[in-house]
Amino acid sequence: MPIAFVLINAELGAENELLNQLKNMASVKYVYVLYGAYDLVVKVEAPDNETLKKTISNSIRQLKNVRSTLTMTVIE
User: Mean pLDDT, 10 residues at a time, over the chain (76 residues)?
Assistant: First the structure.
């Protein structure tokens, strides 16, 4: 099962709104709000690589208050 961690920079003050939106996505397993260089970290698990890619590219990255992301795909 493909897994990725997505670090998100959010628009100022939008962290909790994004947290709630991300929690409702089927492939999102965990979401945490952070202090530091990134605002949220998301663990995404999908049945295949194509679903993982679509979840990150078409769902997470397209959310209104996402400024930028850094995706780390698990290889082992």
Answer: 97 96 96 96 97 96 97 94
Q: Running DSSP on this structure, what letter comes out for residue 70?
A: E
Say how far apart CA 13 and CA 26 lie, in whole Å: 25
Q: Is 37 left (phi over 0), alpha (psi -120 to 50) or beta?
A: alpha
Class of 3-73 per CATH? alpha beta
> Rounded to whole angstroms, how far apart are CA atoms 27 and 24?
9
The DSSP H or E segment spanning 9 is strand 3-10
Cβ within 8 Å of residue 28, ≥6 positions away: 22, 42, 43, 44, 55, 60
- Sign for the CA dihedral angle at 71, 57, 39, 21 comes to negative
The pTM of this model reads: 0.94
